[in-house]
Amino acid sequence: MDHDSFLTEHRELTRRFFLQAGALGFAATQLANFGFADEKPTEEKQSPAPVKRTKPEKAGVRPEPYFTPSVDFRDVSRGKPLPHSLPDEKKREVGLTRETWQLEVLADPDNPAKLGRPLTKEAGTALNFEALLKLAEKHAVRFPKVMTCLNLGCPLGMGLWEGVPLRDVIWLTQPRENLRRVFYYGYHNDDPKQMFRSSLPIGRILEDPYDLPPVILCYKLNGEWLDAERGGPVRVVVPEAYGFKSIKWLTHVVLTNLAHANDTYAEQNNDVDSPLKTFAASISVPREAKAGQPIPVSGYAQVGISGLKKVQVWAASEADTLPEGDPYFTKAPWMDAELLPVPKQWSGLNEGKVPPDTHGFDQSGAPKTWPMRLTNTHWAAVLPGLPKGDYIFRCRTIDAQGHAQPMPRPFRKSGHSTIEMVEFKVVD
């Protein structure tokens, strides 16, 4: 999606809000002045980790379509060469097509769980795509989820994911005892040094706490077969987790008596057990505004595991002295933004409708709660007119528990939550 069409869609999404706020006319004149960050972040002494403004071309933050088309997802795949870039003949050879895909589910040789019937290629019991779809006839689930990288501040894309609960495949192996954890990995160019694995405790796989959807072996995105770039033919999707838990090009699930995580990301000094955080970022803030005129702003929020109560905004003069000992600006004069309503059309899906029996939606296709956890939502606000000068705009979330961003988990190794900073000018 190009820059002009992005602004057109965002204008349509926020039009009603700005009309009700009495700032539509001014907002329309300002759309041409909406700016996005340069490559270098804005620096400020009071902020422990300043970040650049979100750019519109990044996937997953667009107001329309709500569900990101597969081709528009941002890609952070690993591998040399990238597995999805392999020639079709090579994909067929290594099992990266629906016709040739096979999944082995077996015991960890170093810390084995006791299994009655491992699923292996050698024994001819490995799970193929046809058998997976047979399981799907009774057990298929779908749910909305934003896919986000642990170490990036912008979602990769927002999808409706469909698949079979991983537990239904694990039960096929007839596990008996010494099963404490599951780790899994995908195709890695037959190079052990390129292996990228993730893991989960068996308890999370066997049941779904806190009304979460199940961990799935995913084969569809937005109602279409999962393509190779998105991890097809089959990938793992963990609803509440960052993207590194949702391994692409799945080939192996290993059942182990290991008591601790053995994720590749753990070896790279990341927190591998931290679920999605709640945070806000801007989409549209004018580079310049007229003195004394209202200033329309808008953006999105990632709704993490702790939910979302509100988004707040604040514009501070660069000439002001900020209180010491308040790195997260808890004493600032924040004002509430408005969370934008449920989309009228669930764009990106067939006929714009959410299929029946989708987790989080009722039978009419309406969300049971709004905003929905583990997804994106959008917000808008009108700042009061300001005197001439240089300003910094910030936005933050208040989660459903009352924690103001970046709390309750401000640490970078467990996912992005830094309060964004955007510079703008007010002129005569």
Automatic annotation (TrEMBL):
Protein name per its UniProtKB record: TMAO/DMSO reductase
Region described as Disordered: 38-64
MF (Gene Ontology): heme binding; molybdopterin cofactor binding; sulfite oxidase activity
Database matches in SUPFAM superfamilies: Oxidoreductase molybdopterin-binding domain (SSF56524)
Gene3D superfamilies (UniProt xref): Oxidoreductase, molybdopterin-binding domain (3.90.420.10)
Name of one Pfam family that matches: Oxidored_molyb
PANTHER family to which the protein is assigned, alphabetical: SULFITE OXIDASE, MITOCHONDRIAL, SULFITE REDUCTASE
Taxonomic lineage: Bacteria, Pseudomonadati, Planctomycetota, Planctomycetia, Pirellulales
GO biological process terms on file: sulfur compound metabolic process
